[in-house]
Amino acid sequence: MVRIGYTMMTEQAGPRELVGHVVGAERAGFDFSVTSDHYFPWLASQGHAPYAWSVLGAAAQATERIPLMTYVTCPTTRYHPAVVAQKAATLQLLSGGRFRLGLGSGENLNEHVVGGGWPRASVRLAKLAEAIEIIRALFAGGEVTHRGPYYEVAAAKLWDLPDEPPPIGVAVSGDRSCELAGRLADLVIATEPKAELLTAFDRHGGSGKPRVGQLPVCYDPDRKAAVARAHDQFRWALGGWAVNSELPGTAAFATATQTVRPEDVAEAIPCGDDVERFVEAVRPYVDAGFTEVALVQIGGGHQEPFLEWAEAKLLPALRELGSR
């Protein structure tokens, strides 16, 4: 049966609100949660970008059951991998073993803030592979010294380690990232229901490992209002990873999406309160072989009505889909 998750979308709500949202998601019966980790929102209308790791620490204390996960953290530019290892180990302890470390090669939108330019995709993946090597070495305990093509670690050690380190997930979008994920990750992460990504992941060692997808949705009893909100805040999602990873800021995303129409967004994102429309949007992920799907409710101020509706109607329907 497919597991249904909830997304703490840091681009559309402040830190206190995000913690309240995940508490509500746990109460509503979501199977897990994920959290974006950005320095910028994609569009200025989203309006937020708090520090995800502080939010996760608070969420770990405010919840009891729901698993937590970064979706995703880039451990190569804005953060050094040794620091990511320390943060992840601490969060695993705070959450009582409920944390998974989702990693990716990053977006210019967030990583440009520390300077140094934005490398080409092949370099980003090479840096990610080396970062995972460092993180796993630190999770193993003991003192780590590392000198590689991109990073140095000098006599580092994690003094507070959980009994079980967080599983590591890697976000994929093509053959090279699937090869890396199959070889180095405990689970795979994707934002599109492409079976070929999972096939490539399996081919490189991922067979039998969890596979986590994500789907934006926009619940509102007024479908026109839902479409308008999804267009205002989430039209960037129609651009695709190859474009979105390169754009440097909110103004660039606004320019790149100026020709996207509300009807284009409504075709790609389920909007309104028709349960079957939402179920049919999740179905391609199930058919492709995803074992988990995290939903993103668009609009920071529209979470509580969505959570109530999800508990009463959507989650039962999605669990029926996953059991067929």
Rg: 19 Å
Question: Which residues sit in consecutive blocks of at least 5 with pLDDT less than 50?
Answer: none
The shape is globular
Average pLDDT rating: 97
**Number of helical segments?**
13
Share of β-strand residues: 15-25%
**What class would the helix/strand composition place it in?**
alpha/beta
Residue share in helices?
Answer: 40-55%
First-last Cα distance? 8 Å
CATH class: Alpha Beta
Q: Major β-sheet, in short?
A: 9 strands, parallel
Q: How many distinct beta strands?
A: 11
Total domains, how many? 1
The CATH architecture name reads Alpha-Beta Barrel
What's the CATH topology label? TIM Barrel
SSE topology string:
EHEHEHEHHEEEHEHEHHHHEHEH
CATH superfamily: Luciferase-like domain
Describe the 3D structure:
The protein is α/β, with parallel strands linked by helices and 324 residues long. It has one domain (3-323): TIM Barrel (Alpha-Beta Barrel), CATH 3.20.20. 46% of the residues lie in helices and 16% in strands. It has helices at residues 15-28, 52-62, 81-94, 108-111, 121-139, 175-184, 195-206, 223-234, 241-244, 250-256, 262-268, 275-288, 303-323; strands spanning 3-8, 32-35, 68-69, 99-103, 144-147, 152-156, 168-171, 187-190, 211-219, 271-272, 292-297. The strands form two sheets. Strands 1, 2, 3, 4, 7, 8, 9, 10 and 11 form a nine-stranded parallel beta sheet that branches. Strands 5-6 form a two-stranded antiparallel ribbon.
